[in-house]
Design brief:
The chain has 576 residues and is an alpha/beta fold. The chain has three domains: 169 residues, no CATH class; 164 residues, no CATH class; 132 residues, no CATH class. The protein is built from 16 helices and 14 strands. Calcium ion binds next to loops. The site of calcium ion has 8 residues, from loops.
């Protein structure tokens, strides 16, 4: 009997197409084992049946450039790739976090939606590259590991994982996406600037833009809060967490609302027009309501004014006055405590306190080089947990002795084997977007207005520079949009409509040409108004109440741009 295989194949194709699945059967998953594709040697390739919330998929582990660093440590760039059998012909790179070093499970929600998903450790492994001196920041002693963390590992992994995906499914992905927050957000910016051809759509959340500068600002903040500390830790250092009680930070948040909530036209517990906000913390001090001491007022003035050297030159950016200051997500970074253990555990003195001396200072600090460590430093007790160094105040004396004139410039230094400065390998404020723009790529950047570690002011300053460089706002909004989320802390948290789906928006933009004028934000449980919705407007637009209708729903708000002269009147953009 004669059969028309071609037609039969076509009908199968149609059926599969209707189901949204791939039209080509993948090769055998285990046939990838021990092969090397684009420099990645595959050490695991196994087909996992559906289960545990994951779809039927081919799981791949691979290693790129295994080597020994100049610090004697074993390094490799590892990737974790999962390729679902019911592939949607799309590729998704899951960004990292902190100082990377964690391969990750590669199980974001996108895997269940049919995306091939990859994650990486960024070229070092916090479970392996961990020493008593520097904890999980040890990799900062190896220049290649620094460059891998900054950009190189992610580029090699993206390239190799896309090639493995193409080999497995027998055709390349139709669309490739990157999404990350914090360091992952920085990686998204990095791709858009260094490798604009690699992704069709990028979501860069609360990005650690020019992270070494932000790390300098973390030290600045720690010094400011230390001066207001009321108690010492068992290790003999100021306990930053004692500088403000939660009730005092609540008072600051309330005072910010009193001063600035109504300036956007509606008293709703949100500051939608932060550029107009003129909060003065002295109103809470001894000459005001008396809620705060003069030391506390000074600390807030220093921190929110931004890190500066002794000549008054700005070293990072200041911060918006935002009621997110009263949320736990602000406190755990700036002053702690993050963990219920003795000593300082703020992220600024642990994560930032280790990254600054070992990864962002050139040459990296050690007991014998760089800034002298104070005799009281107990750096050899740098935390028992891989991935979380800096307990027992390990880095606190160093952070508190960090000199804004002599030490801050070391993020720009190069010497000896360290041929790239920290700003060279971590810098992510370029405005050269020619390749990205002409390639038709799209990027969504979002920023928490109450983020305690990466300032919205810094993100806005970059975006304004981008607008200037790219021929105006309309031209820039064709490929890059910034969304500043009032009240939101770092990648979530705070009194904010902090739940939103930036990823679907970037997909819709890439695949259907629908540029997002706003994202729909929902306030989660734990906020003063769970379930409240707001439009999160593409900068410079801000959400404004239309004057009627429920203030709890986004449909009662529109996105409007504040008058440009406000920006000049309030002196925004003074940071350099
Ligand atoms: Ca308001």
């Amino acid at each position: 009997m004669k059969r028309d295989y071609r037609l039969q194949g076509a009908s199968v194709l149609l059926l599969l197409g209707a189901a949204g699945a791939s039209h080509a059967a993948p090769i055998a998953c285990n046939s990838l084992l021990n092969t090397t594709i684009e420099g990645a040697t595959i050490t695991t390739a196994q087909l996992n049946p559906a289960g545990g919330g994951l779809p039927d998929h081919c799981e791949v582990l691979a290693v790129i450039n295994p080597r020994t660093g100049i610090d004697g440590q074993p390094y490799a760039i590892k990737l974790h790739l999962r390729m679902p059998t019911a592939w949607n012909e799309r590729f998704y790179f899951q960004g990292g976090g902190g100082t990377d070093g964690n391969l990750g499970a590669a199980t974001p929600a996108q895997l269940g939606q049919g995306y091939a998903v990859v994650s990486t450790d960024g070229g070092h492994d916090s479970g392996v590259n961990h020493t008593p001196l520097a904890g999980s920041f040890q990799f900062g002693f190896d220049p290649q590991a620094r460059s891998d963390y900054g950009y190189n590992a992610h580029a090699l992994v993206a390239s190799a994982a896309q090639a493995i995906t193409k080999t497995y499914y027998r055709h390349k992905p139709k669309f490739s996406y990157f999404e990350g927050c914090s360091e992952g957000g920085r990686e998204g910016l990095m791709f858009s600037q260094r490798y604009p051809e690699m992704f069709d759509g990028i979501v860069a959340g609360n990005p650690g833009m020019d992270l070494p500068k932000a790390a300098v600002a973390e030290a600045w903040d720690s010094q400011a809060f230390a001066a207001a500390a009321r108690t010492m830790t068992p290790f003999g250092n100021p306990d930053l967490a004692s500088s403000f009680t939660p009730a005092e930070l609540n008072a600051v948040g309330d005072a910010i609302l009193l001063a600035c909530d109504a300036q956007d036209g509606l008293v709703d517990g949100m500051v939608n027009n932060p550029q107009a906000c003129r909060f003065d913390p002295a109103t809470l001090g001894p000459s005001g309501s008396g809620v705060l001491s003069s030391a506390q007022v000074t600390a807030l003035e220093k921190v929110f004014g931004g890190a500066k050297n002794s000549k008054g030159k700005s070293l990072y950016a200041g911060w918006f006055w935002d009621p997110g200051v009263a949320a736990p997500g602000w406190r755990v970074w700036k002053i702690g405590p993050l963990l219920p253990v003795p000593g300082n555990t703020s992220l600024n003195t642990t994560l930032g306190g280790g990254a600054l001396p070992f990864i962002f200072t050139t040459p990296p600090n050690s007991a014998t080089g760089g800034t002298a460590l104070k005799p009281t430093t107990v750096i050899t007790k740098a935390g028992p947990n891989p991935g979380f160094a800096g307990l027992n105040d390990a880095f606190v004396p160093w952070v508190l002795s960090f000199n804004m004139d002599l030490d801050a410039p070391k993020i720009f230094a190069e010497t000896g084997n360290f041929k790239e400065s920290a700003m060279d390998f971590m810098g992510t404020s370029s405005t050269d977007y020619g390749g990205f723009r002409t390639g038709g790529k799209k990027m969504i950047v979002y920023s928490g207005q109450g983020d305690p570690v990466f300032s919205s002011k810094y993100h806005i300053k970059w975006y304004r520079n981008l607008v200037d460089e790219q021929g105006g706002l309309d031209n820039t909004q064709r490929f890059a949009r910034l969304f500043v989320v009032p009240g939101m802390n770092h990648c979530g948290g705070g009194p904010a409509t902090s739940q939103f789906d930036a990823f679907s928006s970037v997909v819709n933009w890439v695949e259907h040409g629908v540029a997002p004028a706003s994202l729909l934000g929902t306030a989660p449980a734990g906020t003063p108004w769970p379930g409240r919705t707001r439009p999160l407007c593409a900068f410079p637009a801000q959400a404004r109440y239309v004057g009627h209708g429920s203030i709890e729903v986004a449909s009662s708000f529109v996105c409007v741009s504040p008058r440009e002269d406000e920006r000049h009147r309030n002196g925004e953009g003074d940071d350099d």
